[in-house]
What does this fold into?
Amino acid sequence: MAIHEKSLIAPDHLLTSDKLVIDGVDVSGHWNTMIVPRYVSDYDPDFYETIRKYGGGENVHRCWQCGSCTNSCTVYAINTDFNPRYWIYLTNLGLKDEILKDKDIIWQCVSCNKCTNICPKDVRPEGVMKALQHWMEDEGHVPASAPTRFDAEFTRQCLARGRIEDSEVMLNFFKETKQDVVELVKKGWLGVFVARMNKLPLLREGKIGKFLARLPITGPLKMGWAMVFKPRTKSWGRTGEVLQAFVEEQRKLKHG
Amino acid sequence: MAKVAYYPGCALEGSGGPYDRSTRALVDALGLEMENLADWNCCGAMEVKNVHPMLQTYMSARNLAIASEKMGFDTVMAPCNGCYHNLKKAEYELATSPDAMKTVQELATKADDPVYKGDVRTVHLLEWLMEELGPEGIKARLARSLNGLKIANYYGCMYTRPRQIFPEKDQGPGSESSYKPHFMDDLLAAAGAVNVDFPLKTACCGGAHTLSDADTSTQLVLNLLQAAEEAGAEVIATECPTCHSGLEMHQVRAETQFGIKTKVKIVYFTQLLGLALGLSARKLALHENVSDSLDLLHEKGVV
It folds into this structure.
């Protein structure tokens, strides 16, 4: 029988001979199209256990595939390739190669928690997305994603001082991801943003009185102060070191 | 009236400055009492848990422990959704997992920090205002009306999801709804605003990736801005510094990168309530918002 739903089958699994005669009957062309049988033997039955060892992935094995996560997903609404239900299915089957086909988008989870909120089995899919991303980064399948770098910079400041400082997080992130802040301010949206923050449009329209009345002072002063004298928790003491040691100990315990 | 420990968190000390200032002014004007949480630390925001979930649990629990052990408070009040969410999450996790509680207490002993015992609760500023005053209490203190200003109330993700960590929500009349939150609507309506029928109250602004996946965030914020305008809103009221900055930032980005202009103004709900109580725009730091709402508010006769 001719195969019409070819889009559902990987192209290299479709076999068609241009010339073929069987028992004197000419079945050349699409009349002889066959699907190459697929034997998946390279799956990893323990893969879900690997993912359960990552923070957030602990409940991945509980999934019964209702699809509520994907249905509610913020990112799925923008890009239908972003499919948490499918990735959880693949995780539980151990089909790593299939997951890796989507390796460049899994990091895009925005942590809105709609999936975790609605999941009837408490799988916590938001956590599974983070676990999958960390596994891919640890195994070298993908470079550290932009959010992973952001998380690292943020955590570094927290562990060091107990608190973060907004501009330091932003500037170090731009530097880390090789974005030119000066260019962004000069030509990009950031410049317009800063101009509006400082009410420059009013100045340009010649509304000097309004401009002076609305020019922010306390905020920028406070921020400038914080850039020089970094906010810190005075009683932080050894807390950062203790937490750092705990994370390293856990990492060794779980991932060897 | 119960005095609470005020946990501003990092954002309110930085980019969310106007929220901090308007919160303090509002609480003062309402005659409520709060005391700064002594020498607090970051709650872990949305980032730290991705390095290790226990880091966030510990950092949040440390703040709760400061409130009870060092200050003798049983309630921490946080106006930031991120802080509120993390403290609630720690509260839930440590109440339901003896293992997690043991780890937190051991770490605290090792680090010579106050030890969390599970005897502190966290409330959002909205919940605190509803608990102490409610719409009637606000009405009794009004100096002027918000004059029918049309508002879309935006609550974001962290105030209601996942609902499991907010056991006090969805408890029938008087309680907050995780599906269709209304506390901000109730307070602003009491102050004379008209709440428009805004369908995206708890939609996501992409705050977690506001810089690292800017295009996605711009798209999500545009959904919010356009839906608010479609619903007839002049103002979007916010109750989270990350949402607020995200909306301001991506409103500009949508305009400059994609040429899509929206004119709805973004204002903290504390600033709007403060105006209704007769506080000056300057005291509420309205001029320090990026989204300049002062012309509109003048026009409406509320400034």
Q: What stands out?
A: The mean pLDDT of chain A is 92. Chain A has three domains: 6-35, 47-138, 147-246. The longest strand of chain A covers residues 14-15. The beta strands of chain A are 14-15, 21-22, 25-26, 34-35.
